[in-house]
Amino acid sequence: MNKGFGTVVLDTVFRFLIPFILLYGFYVLSTGGGFQAGALLAIAVILSRVVHGTEAAFNLSGNRALILAGIGTFIYGFIGVATLVWGGNFLEYGVFPFQMLSAEKHALGIMGIEVGVTLCVMATFIAIFDALVGKEEK
Amino acid sequence: MKLMRIVALSFVLFMAAIMFTSSGSLPQIYDPYSAPAVHITDHYIEKAVEETGTANMVTAVLADYRGYDTLGEKPVIFTAGLAAVLLLRASRKPAVGSVKLARQKRG
Question: Is residue B50 in some structural domain?
Fold first, then answer.
């Protein structure tokens, strides 16, 4: 699948569809569904690979996707250790030294780990798709 | 090698015995007087929005009260994806030192 199926109809529908998919992905992320948001964002990238082939501008190679998945996993653990540094329990978001209410600190911490979850799930999906279509160097 | 197998088998049987003997003391399913149903569920429902500032109660439980559990879930996804990618790539080209490649070189 290195060439893509890019006819005029597919290309036009793709251009209309992609902003809505991305917007819905970020909306789901903002309400706290990291796994689902990752799947939606991965669909956007995979769709661009299917329509435009490997020359798509909106693309991510398999090795980079794996690195990104590792970074996403790291963010979660990093936030857990960061709360330890400020003297709290592991993943106790209330100890962040910001001028906020306790509930807002918790919301901020939850947002941070959801971003990590989203990155990990999205990059894992893209890496598996990339390995399936066999694009990597021989 | 054979000793390691015997050790592994006995360890598995030991863990299975622990599980079977202790599973009788777990709370019954749908028991209204079990420990989680008595006070923890009520606390989550009443205080989740107030304590975590998150409108979604499920997210509050997953990412805040049970954050440790979700932390373990992430490496599971990452490792499963990594294993799938490695297997799919390995099926495409013969690995260095594999039987197939050695046979090809020998003629």
Answer: yes
Which pLDDT tens digit goes with each residue over B75-101? 999 999 999 999 888 877 665 655 665
Any domain includes B107 = no
With beta carbons less than 8 A apart as the criterion, state whether A69 and A127 touch: yes
Report the gap between the CA of B19 and the closest CA in chain A (Å): 29
Chain A residues with a Cβ under 8 Å from any Cβ in chain B: 31-34, 62, 66, 69-70, 72-73, 76-77, 80, 90-91, 93, 101-104, 106-107, 109-110, 113-114, 116-117, 120-121, 124-125, 127-128, 130-132, 134, 136, 138
How many domains, in total, are found in chain B?
A: 1
Q: Which residues of A109-128 are buried (b: 16+ CB within 10 A; e: fewer)?
A: bbbbbbbbbbbbbbbbbbbb
Structure-token match 């653990």, residue found: A77
Domain with B20 in it: 2-95
Q: What is the mean pLDDT of residues B66-77?
A: 90
ipTM of the complex: 0.83
